[in-house]
Design brief:
Belongs to the glycosyl hydrolase 43 family. With 608 residues, the protein is mainly β. It has one helix and 39 strands.
C-alpha cells in the first residue's frame, strides 16, 4: 500500500465513536408508502451536515451492510469531497475524502479565483464499486473556454480507504455537474449542465468508464425557464426516465424541478407541479434550497437531500454558507416525486434503528467540539482543512523544541495572497476547521517571537482568499497603533518603546467585496510580551463575531478587541473555516509560530 503524506496520516487513524444527537419520536403514524406503514414517524433536525457542505449527493447501498453514503463539494479546500456515512440517517460520520492526495488531481494547486475548485459531485454505486463524478472548475476563465471545465470521475472499491479512491479520470464536456446513469441495456450515460451563459440546458452523452471517452452530446432538457439549469440526475422508475435538476441560481430563487420521458434521450415532459422543492419567497431561515438528489432507504421510502443557506428572508448573515439538508419524499407509482418543504425541525418516514457501529477516519457530525493538544505522534485531525494542497514544510505536530503544539513555519504570502484569487508560489501556511454552529467559541494559544517587521501569526475566520477576518500578532514600528488595547490604562500596559522600534502589535484586518472595518492596530501590552497569548473568535449572536486576545495564564484578562459583522463572510459558494496562520507578508522572515490548546466549543444551533 502506498504511504500517505504526513499531513494526511490522520485520515486513517483518527476517529471517535460518539452517539448522534438526532431523535426519533413515536408521535405519529407514518403515511402509506414503502414498507414502513404503521411504524412511527421520525423527528430530526436540519441541517444534517452543518457548515460548509454544499451540493450533496447521497445513496443507500444494501451491499455495504445497509449503509447510506453522502458526498459534498469542496471547491479549493483540501482534503476535498468529504464522504459521510450512516446506518440510520441520524448519526453521520466522516469516513473519507475522495480527493486526499495531490497526485490524484495536480491541477487543484493551480486554480485561480476562490470560486474555483471542486464543484458539485454525484456519488453512485454500481458493479461493486463507488463512482464519484465532479468538475474541477477554473472559474477565472471564460465560460466558452473549454479549458475552464475539467470533468472527472473517481472510482473506489472501498470508500472507507483513502487510497482506494483512484486518480481522476478525465472526460470532455464544456460544462459542469456531471452525473452518471447505468441503463438496463448496459449503456452508461453522463448527464451534465452546459455552461449556462453560452447555452443553458441539460446535456447528455454516452461514456466509456474505462477510458473517459464520450459520445455526441445532445440537449435533453432546457428546464422550466429558471436561470442556469444545473445539478442534473437521472432515475428510472415505473417505465419513465426522470430528470431532476436545479434552477434559479444558487441564491434566493433556487429551486428543484423535474421532468420525465419514456426514452433516455427524451423528449422530457416537465412536471406541471414544478418546482418540487424551493423556499423562495418565504420568511424561512432556510433559503436557497436546491441542488437535490433522491434516494431510497431499506424500507423503500424516498428521501431528498439538498443544499440550503440559513440566511433568512434578509439573506445577509450566513457565514456557514451552503449546508446539507434532508427532507422526506413521496414517489407514487407513475407519478412525479413530491418533497416536503425544508425546515429546521422535520418529521418524516420512520428511520432505521439507531446504529453507531460505523468505523471511519473522522468524528460523528454531532461531535463537533474540539479539544486538541497536538500530542507527540498525533496526526493533524482529518476534519481540518487547508486551502488547496498544503506545503508539508509549513506544518509539524509537537516539534521537539515545543511539544504539544502545532508549529507553523510562515508562508511568504498572506491569506489574501497575490491578488485574492491565486495562491502564488508556496501557497499559504494556514489550516482550520469548519464553523458548524451558529454560536460558538474558538480559541487557541499562540507562542510567537517575531524578529523582522511584518512577521505575523494569528487566527482567522476564513471564507476565501478575498473574504476573511484576521486577528494576528505582528511586528510593527512603535507608534503604528490606531487604538489602545481595551481596558487601558492598566499597570504593565504602558509602552516604553521608542518611536520606530519594532514591537509586537495585535492587528485586525479584513478583506471582502463588501464593506469591512478599517484595519485596527493595538500594541500588545508590555507585560504580555514574551508570554503565551490566547486568541479567540466567538459568535454570541447570528450577526457578529468577537475577536479577543489576552494572556493564556490569566483568561480573565482576555479582552474583546473588535466586534465585527459576519456580512463580509456571507457570500459565495463556500462557508467559514476557523483557523490559524503564519506569514512574513512578503518579507524574508522565517520565525515559526507555535499553536496549542486548540478548542472549538459549540454553543447553539439556530434552526428557526
Amino acid at each position: 500500500m502506498k504511504a500517505l503524506p504526513k499531513f494526511l496520516a490522520g485520515l486513517v487513524v483518527f476517529g471517535l465513536t460518539i452517539t448522534g444527537a438526532f431523535a426519533q419520536e413515536d408521535d405519529e403514524t407514518a403515511e402509506e408508502g414503502g414498507e414502513a406503514v404503521g411504524q412511527a414517524n421520525s423527528t430530526y433536525y436540519n441541517p444534517i451536515f452543518p457548515g460548509f457542505h454544499p451540493d450533496p449527493s447521497c445513496i443507500f447501498v444494501p451491499e455495504w451492510d445497509d449503509t447510506f453514503f453522502c458526498a459534498a463539494s469542496s471547491f479549493n479546500a483540501f482534503p476535498g469531497i468529504p464522504i459521510h456515512a450512516s446506518k440510520d440517517l441520524k448519526n453521520w460520520r466522516l469516513i473519507a475524502h475522495v480527493l486526499n492526495r495531490p497526485e490524484q488531481l495536480p491541477r487543484l494547486a493551480e486554480t485561480n479565483r476562490s470560486t474555483s475548485g471542486i464543484w458539485a459531485p454525484t456519488l453512485r454505486y454500481h458493479d461493486d464499486a463507488f463512482w464519484l463524478f465532479t468538475t474541477l472548475v477554473d472559474d477565472d476563465r471564460p465560460q466558452e473556454d473549454a479549458s475552464r471545465w475539467d470533468n472527472i470521475f473517481f472510482k473506489a472499491e472501498d470508500p472507507f480507504d483513502p487510497l482506494s479512491w483512484s486518480e481522476a479520470i478525465h472526460f470532455e464536456f464544456e460544462g459542469y455537474d456531471p452525473s452518471p446513469f447505468w441503463d438496463e441495456d448496459g449503456k452508461v450515460y453522463v448527464t451534465a449542465a452546459h455552461a449556462w451563459r453560452v447555452s443553458p440546458g441539460i446535456h447528455q452523452a454516452e461514456i466509456d468508464l474505462e477510458t473517459g471517452d464520450v459520445g455526441e452530446w445532445t440537449v435533453t432538457w432546457e428546464g422550466t425557464g429558471g436561470l442556469a439549469p444545473e445539478g442534473p440526475h437521472i432515475y428510472f422508475k415505473d417505465g419513465y426516465y426522470y430528470l431532476l435538476a436545479a434552477e434559479g441560481g444558487t441564491g434566493n430563487e433556487h429551486m428543484v424541478t423535474v421532468s420525465r420521458s419514456e426514452s433516455i434521450s427524451g423528449p422530457f415532459e416537465s412536471n406541471p407541479a414544478n418546482p418540487i422543492l424551493s423556499n423562495a419567497n418565504t420568511t424561512s431561515l432556510f433559503q436557497a434550497v436546491g441542488h437535490a438528489d433522491l434516494f431510497q432507504d431499506g424500507s423503500g421510502n424516498w428521501w431528498c437531500v439538498a443544499l440550503s443557506v440559513r440566511g433568512g428572508a434578509e439573506y445577509l448573515h450566513f457565514p456557514m454558507g451552503r449546508e446539507t439538508v434532508l427532507a422526506p419524499a413521496r414517489w407514487e407509482e407513475g407519478e412525479f416525486p413530491v418533497v416536503d418543504q425544508i425546515k429546521g425541525t422535520m418529521e418524516g418516514w420512520p428511520m432505521p434503528e439507531e446504529n453507531t457501529s460505523l468505523e471511519g477516519i473522522g468524528r460523528w457530525v454531532s461531535d463537533r467540539e474540539d479539544d486538541i493538544d497536538f500530542a507527540p505522534g498525533s496526526p493533524i485531525p482529518p476534519h481540518f482543512q487547508y486551502w488547496r494542497y498544503p506545503n508539508e514544510d509549513y506544518f509539524e505536530v509537537s516539534p521537539d523544541e515545543h511539544p504539544n503544539s502545532l508549529r507553523i513555519n510562515p508562508s511568504k504570502i498572506n491569506l489574501t495572497a497575490l491578488n485574492g484569487n491565486y495562491a502564488g508560489p508556496g501557497g499559504q501556511a494556514f489550516v482550520g476547521r469548519k464553523q458548524q454552529d451558529t454560536l460558538f467559541t474558538y480559541s487557541v494559544n499562540l507562542d510567537f517571537d517575531p524578529s523582522q517587521g511584518e512577521e505575523e501569526a494569528g487566527i482567522t475566520a476564513f471564507l476565501t482568499q478575498n473574504h476573511h477576518l484576521d486577528l494576528g500578532v505582528v511586528l510593527l514600528p512603535a507608534g503604528s497603533k490606531t487604538a489602545d488595547f481595551p481596558g487601558r490604562p492598566r499597570a504593565g500596559n504602558e509602552s516604553t518603546a521608542e518611536e520606530g522600534e519594532l514591537v509586537p502589535h495585535f492587528r485586525f484586518r479584513a478583506e471582502s467585496y463588501v464593506p469591512v472595518p478599517d484595519t485596527l492596530v493595538v500594541p500588545v501590552p508590555e507585560a504580555w510580551i514574551g508570554e503565551t497569548l490566547r486568541l479567540e473568535i466567538s459568535a454570541k449572536n447570528n450577526t457578529h463575531y468577537s475577536f479577543s486576545a489576552g494572556p493564556a495564564r490569566a483568561r480573565s484578562e482576555i479582552q474583546t478587541i473588535i466586534d465585527v459583522s459576519n456580512e463580509p463572510l456571507s457570500w459565495g459558494f463556500t462557508g467559514v473555516i476557523l483557523g490559524i496562520y503564519a506569514t512574513s507578508n512578503g518579507g524574508n522572515g522565517s520565525t515559526p509560530a507555535y499553536f496549542s490548546e486548540w478548542k472549538y466549543v459549540p454553543q447553539e444551533q439556530f434552526r428557526d
